[in-house]
Design a protein that fits this description.
Layout lengths: L4 H10 L14 E8 L2 E8 L4 E5 L12 H6 L3 E5 L16 H11 L5 E6 L1 H12 L4 E7 L10 H4 L13 H10 L9 H13 L7 H5 L18 E6 L4 H13 L4 E5 L6 H4 L1 H24 L1 H14 L8 H13 L3 H14 L5 H13 L2 H14 L4 H15 L2 H12 L1 E4 L2 E5 L7 H4 L7 E5 L2 E4 L5 H11 L28 H11 L6 H9 L48 E7 L4 H4 L14 E4 L16 E3 L8 E2 L3 E3 L11
Parallel strand pairs: 3-4, 3-5, 5-6, 6-7, 7-8, 13-16
Antiparallel strand pairs: 1-2, 2-4, 9-12, 10-11, 12-17, 13-14, 14-15
Helix pairs in contact: 11-12, 12-14, 13-14, 14-15, 15-16, 16-17
């Protein structure tokens, strides 16, 4: 059943409110009216400090915040008002805009900046205001909020078959239904339902259909703009609220970076009145921490840490951010490669939650990614002390200690054995793209045919693995690779036999230097990749297929090294799996001008050469003569390396398999 759009908009307009007892008079309240185009708005102000504007939903009026107004005014400046047609504000007599009314309220009350706390459609209004005036919004608390641009199901439109279009034009029918609506108030809160009934019966003007008929706001889709918001946001939804509202909460949470979503048990759509203690606790913590998150996102971790520590010192035992939020944001930064920010958040989590075993465990992981292994060890040990059953902390401590205990000569002997060296024969090798015969085309290529004479050398039969690279990091304090610990990239200790990725040319250089080896030259790499074949495009012939190489479009990530057939020299993955750094700087004309004997590569250049193609590369990039180049500090999920070393003088150069 497709319902009229005017009815659906009306339903969205009225849904969502809260009910509460009258304020006990504990705070001094200043009230008045703000003149707006064609009417006036009633408002109340209480408290001092950071400003917060309370925006009610579509059933009731400002009294929906009765439980919040005195509680939050003890430490903050609270402003609540009746939207046009509600409570003591004037009834609309001509078209009007809720957004324009809120803008006027800010102007007349000289509200420079404020946190917006909006319920249901009031939450949607808060989002719209924040998108239009981001400089005036310090934070958002969105309660059962809906956002424009996301539709509604038939279940929502009919309230599960309990409600129809005809009811929208009858204020009495509206009131009767929403007093008993199972989604507005949880069955666990009969007192809240009685409060809803009393407020609705005392304020029949709130449900006047004229509100909806005369309201005009510009057509918009705020859903698509949520990513533009750079303010802290707390998204609250009652566990028993209607499913569409949960969907909207999830969409808002996904759209606003760094937002926190909390589901409140034993609450429906009117959770500020159903669970006022829990709501106030979360709101006060958010308001206290809003400055911290705002400064963190705008000025960075150092400035934000000072704010966090000051707030914590002012109220010991009441951290301005939850452990879950700090931890979640820390991992969001960690997975994005912004390790400094992740470390800062995990350090604050350890400071604020000293009895948590999870906080130092997370900090230990971040320190590992920075290459600070002593700091990582201390935090993993602290986590284990707090929770002796923490298997992850125990495992990481063992790995760190094992790496530190191995004598260098033993480590090197094991590395030599694991390298599985292949002796690549010396002699003259025909390189470059030998498939092109047109001289005019050759003149434009960076890889025209050439002959190079090389000495025999050793090359690792397989690409350097995660396990091999981790040993280097643990022994030297070198930072872990980009993408480390990300399962979708098969990176980290859980994938020991996969090729290491997320390493720059500089990282590869440091690794081979530590091992006492080197990177192959570009000429050595191509000679080895050809595997003794001549005039062929790929290491195993003129064709590449999923049976012989891990390449696009069939590749979906790295595979354990050596998973595909070796070439004629016994070398694996010379096409596909990961592209590979070589030692040379890039020179477009080097195949024309470089020396024919041993060809060490250009002395200098802006970029470093990459060869071989990877799982994310198309077949053309995996040809043995294809050249690529990038900055020496580039990292990529499709890029790794393998090692080479000189063969002793007098080696015969016969290939070994």
């Amino acid at each position: 059943m497709r319902l009229p759009i005017c009815w659906l908009l009306g339903l969205v307009w009225i849904l969502g409110t809260g009910v509460a007892a009258d304020p006990a008079g504990a705070v001094q309240v200043r009230s008045g009216f703000v003149e707006v185009d064609g009417g006036r708005l009633f408002y109340e102000v209480a408290g001092e400090g950071l400003a917060a504007v309370l925006i009610h939903d579509g059933l009731l009026h400002r009294e929906t915040w009765d439980e919040q107004f005195p509680a939050l005014a003890d430490g903050f400046k609270l402003i609540r008002y009746d939207r046009r047609g509600y409570g003591r504000s004037s009834r609309p007599e001509r078209p009007f805009s809720n957004l324009a009314d809120l803008e006027r309220l800010f102007q007349e009350l000289k509200i420079g900046k404020a946190c917006l706390i909006g319920s249901s459609a009031g939450g949607g209004l808060a989002v719209d205001f924040a998108l239009r005036h981001p400089e005036q919004v310090t934070g958002l608390i969105l309660v059962g909020a809906v956002v424009s641009g996301l539709g509604f199901t038939e279940h929502f439109q009919t309230r599960g078959g309990r409600f129809g279009p005809a009811d929208m034009s009858d204020a009495a029918a509206l009131r009767k239904y929403f007093i008993s609506d199972p989604y507005s108030v949880s069955p666990a809160n009969p007192a809240a339902r009685e409060r809803v009934k009393a407020l609705m019966e005392a304020n029949p003007q709130n449900l006047d259909p004229a509100h909806r008929r005369l309201h005009r706001d510009e057509a918009r889709s705020s859903l698509r703009q949520l990513s533009e918001l750079r303010v802290p946001a707390l998204i609250l939804v009652g566990e028993d609220d209607i499913p569409d509202v949960h969907a909207h909460a999830g969409a808002i949470n996904a759209g606003i970076a760094g937002s926190e979503r909390v589901v409140i048990p034993q609450a429906g759509h009117l959770l500020p009145l159903e669970q006022p203690v829990r709501f106030n606790e979360l709101a006060i913590r958010f308001l206290r921490g809003a400055d911290f998150w705002r400064i963190f996102y705008s000025q960075g971790p150092k400035a934000a840490a000072e704010v966090f520590e000051r707030l914590l010192a002012a109220r010991p035992g009441e951290p301005p951010a939850t452990e879950a939020h700090l931890n979640r944001e820390g991992y969001r930064y960690l997975l994005a490669g912004r390790v400094t920010e992740a470390v800062a958040l995990f350090q604050l989590c350890v400071l604020a939650y000293p009895d948590s075993a999870n906080a130092p465990d997370s900090l230990g992981e971040a320190f590992l990614m920075q290459g600070k292994y002593d700091d990582a060890r201390k935090n993993y040990q602290r986590s284990l002390d707090l929770n002796p059953g923490n298997a992850n902390a125990r495992q990481m401590l063992a790995r760190i200690d094992e790496a530190a205990a191995v004598r260098p000569e033993v480590r090197q002997a094991a590395a030599e054995a694991a390298a599985d060296w292949v002796l690549v024969p010396g002699g003259t090798c025909r390189m470059g793209n030998t498939t092109v015969t047109d001289e005019a085309i050759k003149a434009t290529m960076d890889n025209p045919p050439r002959e190079v004479t090389l000495k025999p050398f050793y090359l690792m039969s397989r690409e350097v693995t995660n396990a091999q690279y981790l040993e280097f990091c643990l022994a030297t304090g070198h930072h872990l690779p980009e993408f480390w610990g990300m399962a979708r990239h098969r990176s980290g200790p859980d994938y020991p036999d996969h090729p290491v990725i997320g390493v720059s040319w500089e990282d590869a250089r440091d690794y081979v230097k530590w091992r006492g080896w080197r990177l192959p030259t570009e000429a050595e790499w191509e000679s080895a990749a050809r595997g003794g074949l001549t005039e062929k495009k790929f290491p195993n012939g003129d064709e590449v297929s999923p049976a012989v190489a891990n390449t696009a479009p069939d590749g979906i990530g790295t595979k354990p090294v050596g998973s595909y057939p070796a070439n004629g020299y016994g070398l694996f993955d010379m096409a596909g799996n990961v592209a590979e750094w070589v030692s040379d700087s890039y020179d477009r004309d080097y195949y024309r001008t470089g020396p024919a004997q041993d060809s060490p590569g250009p002395e200098k250049g802006k970029f470093r050469v990459i060869r071989g193609g990877g799982w994310h590369s198309g077949p053309s990039c995996c040809r043995v003569f294809y050249r690529n180049a990038r900055s020496a500090n580039l990292v990529d999920f499709n890029l790794g390396f393998r090692c080479a070393k000189d063969a002793p003088p007098g080696m015969a150069g016969a290939p070994a398999r």
